[in-house]
Specification:
Number of helices: 6
Strand content: 15-25%
Shape: globular
Strand order of the largest sheet: 2-4-3
Number of strands: 7
Number of domains: 1
Order of helices and strands: EEHHEEEEHHHEH
Length: about 140
């Protein structure tokens, strides 16, 4: 695989409606809180579920609280995970996973060619942002 084609299509929110979690770094939490005009503590109380090692958005009824008809209401401050999609390690490292996501993401296979090295570099940001999700098994 030389590269991957992807272009986020205006108005598409299919990635936002898939089953799963939206994880937050501490910086994500602070940036989103400031964007909506809340303190980080108030934002966390209202929107975040925290475990020992991870923070994630509370997703009531499988819908992100920031997803609106026109798209993401916090787009300029959206979490790292959302910003990097679909360049996640589990998707760029395995052709089958990339194709599987392409079944619901119309932007996969369109746009400019992203060299595989660049895609892997983008994906490495996910590993840095969420190290507990990408720990090597012992």
């Amino acid at each position: 695989m030389d590269g991957l084609r992807f272009q986020c299509l205006p108005g598409c929110t299919r990635c936002c409606t898939q089953k799963g979690f939206v994880y937050l770094t501490e910086e994500d939490l602070e940036r989103a809180a400031a964007f909506v005009g809340m303190s980080a503590a108030a934002f966390e109380r209202r929107y975040v579920y925290r475990t020992k090692h991870l923070r994630r958005l509370r997703i009531p009824r499988r819908k992100c609280p920031f997803l609106e008809e026109g798209g993401c209401s916090i787009h300029p401050a959206k979490p790292t995970q959302c910003r990097l999609f679909p360049f996640w390690p589990e998707l760029v490292e395995t052709r089958g996973n990339w194709r599987r996501v392409g079944r619901y993401c119309p932007g996969i296979g369109t746009g400019k060619l992203v060299q595989i090295g660049t895609a892997m570099e983008i994906a490495s940001e996910m590993k840095r942002a969420y190290p507990t999700l990408y720990q090597e098994p012992r």
